[in-house]
Amino acid sequence: MRRFKGLTQKQKTRAFNKLLAPARKQFSAIPSLEPRGDRPLQMTFEDQLNALVYFHLEEFKSGRHLLQALEQNNFAKEYVAPSKGIKKSAFFEAINTRGLEQLSQLFTTLVADTTKAIPAEFAHLGNLVSIDGSLIDAVMSMEWADYPGEVKKAKAHIGFDINRCIPTKIFLTDGLKCERPFVEKIIAKGQTGVMDRGYQCHRYFDQWQTDNKQFVCRIQERTAKKIIRENAVNPDSIIFYDAVALLGSKVSNQTEKELRVVGYRVEGKEYWVATNRHDLSAEDVAQVYKLRWSIETFFAWWKRHLKVYHLIARSPYGLMVQILGGLITYLLLAIYCQEEHGEKVSIQRVRELRIKIANEAAELQQNNKSSTNIKQRKLRRQYAKT
Known about the structure:
It is elongated and about 95 Å long. The chain has helices spanning 9-12, 15-24, 45-57, 63-72, 74-79, 88-97, 100-117, 182-186, 202-210, 282-290, 293-306, 316-341, 347-385; strands spanning 127-137, 153-161, 166-174, 191-195, 214-219, 225-230, 239-247, 259-266, 269-275. Among the domains are: 9-103 and 315-370, no CATH class; 212-283. A 9-stranded mixed beta sheet has the order 3-2-1-4-5-9-8-7-6, sandwiched between helices. By secondary structure, the protein is α+β, with helices and mostly antiparallel strands. The relative contact order is 0.13.
């Protein structure tokens, strides 16, 4: 890795490098990008990662905006851009055709590292993974991004660790793709999937139980229930219903396997939840579903503060590269905030990091100017002696 061999120890510990340190630890295990044909690579994988993290961290609005910074911003030229710079055509070719395997491997590794670094906040409720899909506004030239009407949209299917507030899985499809089949791909053994009522499907409820997948899923209030047995309910609790039942009717897609159904009321609104978690109290089941909202908060924060949906790619491959870059940036921020402040990611801490990077960039520029002036004075003295 050519970039950091010549740095002093003081420079190695600077903010941007410290943010990227957990990723760089994994480089030796990640396959290198290989050039195609006889032309050498203009962007190594390290260059690509640096650019993607910098893009999301500094809230650039487009690929061209980023490229301008890589060409004109002193810090970006020195520590982010390839050593010989990067042309627009080469940059967009790299984003749309290279690095997906490497980024996918790095994302998986960083998920494991972040899981170890951040303690579980709701460990008594189990390993909770919220599942949801997020639509991405596409452009008309993205013909693969099918969606109703005269628009184009893609969809990111995300698994989100509720205990640590980090993304753990990602799948990308067109905007029309059904979300339910991705539950099987996102939930691992020992995890509990937490889903909104858009995931309600009695056939999938049976299948998930057959596959030993645990879940907590909101269901529609009007869903028919064939009660098998009722559980006692505390009259002073928010819980008003707790029973084991079959969902649906014999003529309307009834489940073959029994489920627990919990009803609770918050501020006058009723919620109905189906689950196969019989080890939790009804109050705990209600809390698990309420924690599902953390993925909505993540989507809103991620979109607003890291600008992940300002497209710099149009192909499915390139868009997945960009999204993985955004998710990796978030994981790096999660590790950084935990190690530096013992906190979860917040916009306050991200802004502090941006200010640190800007201040250090100005300091480096000033040091470079001073070093240049010293060299010029030495040359003038040498010239005067001759």
